[in-house]
Specification:
This protein is α+β, with helices and mostly antiparallel strands and about 240 residues long. It folds into 3 domains: about 55 residues, Structural Genomics Hypothetical 15.5 Kd Protein In mrcA-pckA Intergenic Region, Chain A, CATH 3.10.290.10; about 90 residues, Pseudouridine synthase I, catalytic domain, N-terminal subdomain (Alpha-Beta Plaits, 2-Layer Sandwich), CATH 3.30.70; about 80 residues, Pseudouridine synthase (2-Layer Sandwich), CATH 3.30.2350.10. About 20% of the residues lie in helices and about 25% in strands. The strands form 4 sheets. Strands 7, 8, 9, 10, 13, 14, 15, 16 and 17 form a 9-stranded mixed beta sheet that branches. A 4-stranded antiparallel beta sheet has the order 3-2-5-6, with no helix packed on it. Strands 1-4 form a two-stranded antiparallel ribbon. Helix 1 packs across helix 2. The longest helix has 9 residues. It is elongated and about 65 Å long. The two termini are about 30 Å apart.
């Protein structure tokens, strides 16, 4: 049965559907008094609203937009930020004309890292993909400045201690058919610059870092610097963990 678009929904669901944040995050905004409905602050959880209501966050009206899911093959030298007055090379410039909805990158890739970056306005999915408890798999191609010794490969595989705690990749190996400078790393941690810090702790410098797999999505038929919308099958896969 198709739901009537005018049917009342919980306020936290309306906020989440608009891509502002997850439902739990919406509950926090509501209890903090940051949401108004028809000009009045609403702090009661479970409040029902309809699309006809004037619902605002920090004075800006929230609109229940269609959900957009877009995959970019990020080039080098672009930063993952929504706005940066000091840089014209942001990932938002690459997807600026993709759609009318306001979309956001899911997670981050640093300036020198290339590869898969997902964009969406789906707050619930963003939380699911970025929260550590969901363990979304990522695979990176790593090129080093020198050969990785077998001893150091085993050290990384067994796990190492960094300044912010212990880290162990899910899998690590030499790239089949490549040199010992080329490594494949499977990991689910979202900690800042974690791959670079892992190898840096053992005296290696990464000269190329490319995310080739992200939560079931690959770079197949997606050239560097280009983007595409996800298929309905891929969207369903992300939401149901069907790739796991």
């Amino acid at each position: 049965m198709t739901r009537n678009p005018e049917e009342p929904v919980r306020l936290n669901k309306f906020i989440s559907n608009a891509g502002i944040c997850s439902r739990r995050g919406a509950d926090e905004l509501i209890t903090a008094g940051l949401i108004t409905v028809n000009g009045k602050p609403v702090t009661r959880l479970g409040t029902m609203v309809s699309p006809r209501d004037d619902i605002r966050f920090n004075g800006n009206r929230i609109r229940n937009e269609r959900k957009v899911y877009l995959l970019l093959n990020k080039p080098k030298d672009y930063i993952t930020t929504v706005e940066d007055p000091h840089s014209k090379k942001t990932v938002m410039n690459l997807v600026r004309n993709a759609c009318g909805e306001r979309i956001y990158p899911v997670g981050r890739l640093d300036r020198d890292t290339t590869g898969l970056l997902l964009f969406t306005n789906d707050g619930e999915l963003t939380k699911q993909l970025t929260h550590p408890s969901y363990n979304k798999k990522k695979i990176y191609y790593v090129a080093l400045n020198k050969d990785l010794t077998k001893t150091d490969l085993n050290k990384l595989a067994d796990g190492i201690h960094l300044e912010d705690g212990y880290i162990q990749p899910d899998a690590i190996s030499y790239i089949e058919g490549g040199t010992k400078k080329e490594i494949g790393v499977e990991i689910h941690s979202g900690r800042n610059r974690i791959i670079r810090r892992m190898f840096g702790s053992l005296g290696y410098r990464i000269v190329k870092l490319d995310r080739v797999y992200y939560a079931g999505l690959t770079k197949k038929n997606l050239p560097r610097g280009k983007w595409r919308f996800l298929s309905q099958r891929e969207i369903k896969m992300l939401k149901t963990n069907a790739y796991e």
